[in-house]
Design brief:
Number of helices of chain A: 6
Oligomer: homodimer
Largest sheet of chain A: 4 strands, antiparallel
Radius of gyration of chain A: 19 Å
Number of strands of chain A: 14
Largest interface: A-B, 39 and 39 residues
Strand content of chain A: 25-35%
Structural class of chain A: alpha+beta
Shape of chain A: globular
Helix content of chain A: 25-40%
Strand order of the largest sheet of chain A: 4-11-6-9
Chain lengths: 223, 223
DNA sequence: CGCTCGATTGAGCCGCGTCAAAGTGCGTGG
DNA sequence: CCACGCACTTTGACGCGGCTCAATCGAGCG
């Protein structure tokens, strides 16, 4: 197993935002790597030796069901951590949505840090807990919302994460959105058109979304 | 709604295992408490001061959407831990599916143990990670499976957890199953009837399920 | 014995998936 | 610079699975 000679430095989290993974006071610096659009970053059942953080671009984590259909569990934007597993192998795959730069840290280094520092251990726990909460939220969306509601909720969530909430460039295709929301491409497309017709959004191009009426979106999103 | 003697499994008081919450080598002992069928154990947005473990009976964790429909996130059977949160308030509610006995431990005690013992901290992390994996699995079921497939998958999962896989007494109603699988009561009922017609299971009574053909269940469950 | 709550069964409808066909933007090569 | 091809998106027609509404059945309890 290759050693990545990671060093730990106490520095303000803001400054270290994209150099490594921050656990409480310390930041584990990692190695930078680039992936092209649609490349696999790691696959399910591979040895889970590294934990990743997005520097630029967007990443999707996904798994496949028996018949080959894919389910996108989450999208990861700059600053987000993914690939954090306790088991020895990844339970899902990760792929580059766009051209992407990531920084990766050996899992063993994270575990060592957690074993020696209660604050770091707690930070790891918080990461897992946040992911859990997000997964619960996702299950709620899939279980309880109709097609239009899912898309509206997705747009609101992306708007909050990407931009100043008025205008954004979606990094992912309709197919990605469909596989995240458990819909078909056609249904997602119809939902976009419908929201444009109701003047809740504007679509200068397919992936460029302008939020025109936040209130309308919110009422569409209500299950 | 009086006592329904839902004592599904005459569990011999299998002692120490159900006296508290085990974290690695140490076990934090807790206080025992009982709840009647359908009682709330804790509610979303309450202060998350305790972590719970099921001693006997069954518990559901759930949340409500804006329009009042409920989504059951998971069922918890004897030995399972629930109510473990990192935030200061619970993000979901917990209710007794049947008459139930739980043991509860102060969250502060768990955190103290984790801060002083790396093995305990790792055990906590594993708990969160297992829950995350389960939530991902649930999202996959909701997103990718049809009605019959969901019910078959649910039955197989319960069979593995409850019994020696041949025969079991479900602690929850059709309504609970429906709200877990994001279906209606009627659709769940039809799925049961269908599986009985195909001789995959037998239903001596509504909640008593006998698995007659495990292979048939598996092929039904395949998405 | 009758009440009540849960489960089952049936009829009809609607939303979303499926299949099919244009339409759009972009890179590539002539 | 334009023509072409390819990938992605949009739009339409249609069928089906699961939800809605409604009636019946069955078991436990007063």
């Amino acid at each position: 197993m290759r050693d990545l000679h990671l060093d730990t430095q106490g520095r303000p989290a803001a400054a270290a935002a994209f150099d490594g993974i921050t656990l409480g006071r310390q930041t584990l610096r990692g190695v930078h790597k680039r992936f092209e659009h649609n490349c696999e970053i790691f696959g399910a059942d591979e040895r889970a030796d590294y934990v990743y953080r997005v520097v630029s671009g967007a990443v999707r984590t996904l798994s496949f069901s028996a018949d080959g259909r894919r389910q996108i569990l989450a999208f990861h934007l700059p600053g987000d951590v993914f690939g954090f597993e306790l088991a020895d192998v990844y339970t899902y795959s990760a792929e580059a949505v766009s051209d992407v730069e990531v920084v990766l840290v050996a899992r063993s280094a994270l575990e060592k840090a957690a074993a020696n520092d209660a604050v770091a251990a707690r930070a790891l726990l918080k990461m897992a807990s946040d992911e859990l909460h997000q997964a619960h939220e996702h299950a709620l969306v899939l279980g309880r919302k109709g097609a239009g509601e899912r898309v509206a909720a997705f747009l609101m969530a992306m708007a909050k994460r990407i931009s100043a909430r008025r205008e954004m460039e979606l990094p992912m295709s309709r197919a990605d959105i469909a596989d995240h929301l458990a819909l078909t491409i056609e249904t997602v497309s119809r939902a976009f058109t419908q929201m444009e017709r109701e003047a809740a959004i504007a679509l200068p191009s397919a992936r460029h979304v302008v939020v025109r009426d936040w209130g309308a979106l919110e009422s569409l999103q209500a299950a």
